[in-house]
Amino acid sequence: MSQKPSSYPSSKLRLIDVVVTGFFIFTAVLGLYLFQQDLLRTFDMRDVEPAGTIVIRNNVVQRRHADRVLWDRIFVDSYVYPGDLIRAGDQSYATVDISSNEISLNENTIIRIQYVMDGSGTFQVELQEGNVSVTSGVDSTGIFLNLMGTQVHTASGTVLNATAGDEGISVEVSEGTAEFIQEGKAREISEGMMIAMDTQGVERIIPAIVVTRPSPNARFLKNQSEGLVINFAWNRINLNSDEKLRLQISDDPHFNRITLSLDDLDNYAQAALDAGQWYWRFLYEDTILRSGWLTIADSSGPTLVSPVNNSVFRYSNTPPQIRFQWEEKQNASRYFVEISDNPQNFANPYVRQTTANSLILSDLKEGTWYWRVRPVFPALFTGEVSYSSIGSFKIEKTADTSAPVIEVPEPVIAIRPEPVNTARPGAVIPLSGRGQQYTVTPGDTLGRIARQFYGDSLQWTRIAEANNIRNPDLIYPGQTFIIP
Asked: Where in the chain is the domain with CATH 2.60.120.1440?
């Protein structure tokens, strides 16, 4: 005799479907609620005085407002507020200006910005984990660092490096002085001194060095073709003078490619380096005593792209719109453009204007015009900056109704800056440990390049960040990009 199939399994499945559907609806509603709360807090933040501004950002740097659950990405010139958490991810870094104090976060670092609880309005930076460097400006009253409950107060003109982690804390002063405050007792740390403590607050006596030159995360400008000479100086801590050190410099943070190695060092060394980001470390035997990085930016005058030198713009009724473009300089924050009717006199030019990476003008009158461009770098960079060569073009009024006409001199190839390498457009060159180098072809966009290498056009931001591209719409054939 056949039995009637039980209806229990189908009922059970329907119950599971209801539970799963309800769970997903609840999750979606919760997500919308949290997003709404964050959005409302964003509106509320408009009336809050910011604590500082992001000056430099590289790769993945995020910020979470006080009492929020969501992290958001931040960019150069973004405000930060009291209560904010800021973190820099792997191979990322950022610098925050807080009351004329530059707080630089190295990779895998988290800080919280708070007010000091004394009613003075002074800010405190709590280092939760990682490594920061602090440069207090000469017009600053300094800043407080909270390192696992220990306070460090910088004076004006102080430069120091601080670390917090599983092994405890350490503070190294490269320049000026700082107060180290533990359990209400303060002691002064001056240039070349270091204090290291374990997680129990017990001072550690370990071999170390305090690097006084260059300053932590130093940034230099180089406007000459030869390498820039970088001076390294350091103070020994618990090391004898006969215990020689080794300095290694690499363009790779993992030191797979060591560019320069200097042995048998005492307290001073020099290295001539080209533009780029360089990582350095000091070793005693096989022990790394200190490591850091520095940036050298090419601050020579950029190559002028448009208008083409000696070109002629003709119009009949309305003066033409002229787009000024130039080769971008990595690390430059903006550009200073000068336009004059006299190549010998830029002291009082017709146009003197700062801009992001291009400029469009439509009010230039008839005549021959001369122009030049100078890159502008954040104040953290030290060194000299050069103007570009002087370009020229002519504007003429004509009765020809077919105007506007642009007359470009031959050869046209002269309007484009020379690429860094001689690769043909579309060429892909492997770069050891750094990804690939790609030469832009006509019709390329960052989205199209990202789709070619990553299979996803939305990954164009990776290319833009790696090459410091501020305007993704302004790329041209012959440019070479690093594809990380």
From this structure: 46-204
Please report the pLDDT score of residue 412 as a whole number.
Answer: 40
DSSP string, 268-300: EEEEEE-SEEEEEEEEETTEEEEEEEEEEEE-S
Q: Which amino acid is at 153?
A: H
- Domain 428-483 bears CATH identifier 3.40.50.80: no
Cα gap 213→215, rounded to integer Å: 5
Distance of alpha carbon 23 from alpha carbon 464, whole angstroms: 39
What mean pLDDT do residues 259-287 have? 94
CATH for the stretch 304-415? 2.60.40.10
What order of strands is seen across the sheet that includes strand 322-326? 304-306, 322-326, 358-361
The DSSP element (H or E) to which 405 belongs, if any, is strand 405-407
Q: What is the DSSP letter of 203?
A: B
pTM: 0.72
- Report the range of poorest mean pLDDT among 59-73, 91-105, 193-207, 357-371: 59-73
Residues of the chain with CATH 2.60.40.10: 219-298, 304-415
Q: Delimit the CATH 3.10.350.10 region(s) of the chain.
A: 428-483
With H, G, I as helix, E, B as strand and everything else as coil, classify residue 80.
strand
* Whether 294 contacts 214, CB under 8 Å: yes
Backbone angles phi, psi at 294, to 5 degrees: -145, 160
Q: Report whether the peptide linkage leading into residue 50 is cis, meaning its omega lies within 30 degrees of zero.
A: no
Amino acid at 401: T
Q: Quick one: which of 232, 230, 227, 210 has its CA closest to 219?
A: 230
* pLDDT for res 13: 52
CA gap 339, 354 in Å, rounded = 12
Q: Could you report the per-residue pLDDT of 16-54, keeping only the tens digit for each?
A: 777 777 777 877 777 676 665 555 555 445 567 888 999
Mean pLDDT, residues 159-176 taken together: 94
pLDDT tens digit sequence for 209-244? 999 999 999 999 999 989 999 999 999 999 998 999
Q: Quickly count: other Cβ atoms within 10 Å of residue 235's Cβ.
A: 18
The CATH class that applies to domain 219-298 reads: mainly beta
Cα-Cα-Cα-Cα torsion 239, 245, 250, 254, nearest 10 degrees, comes to -50
What is residue 419's predicted lDDT score, i.e. its pLDDT? 40
Q: In what order do the strands lie in the sheet with 208-213?
A: 208-213, 228-237, 268-273
Q: Is 20 strand, coil or helix?
A: helix
36 φψ region: left (φ > 0), alpha (ψ -120 to 50), beta (else): alpha
CATH class of 46-204: mainly beta
Buried b (16+ CB within 10 A) or exposed e, 107-117: bbbbbbbbeee
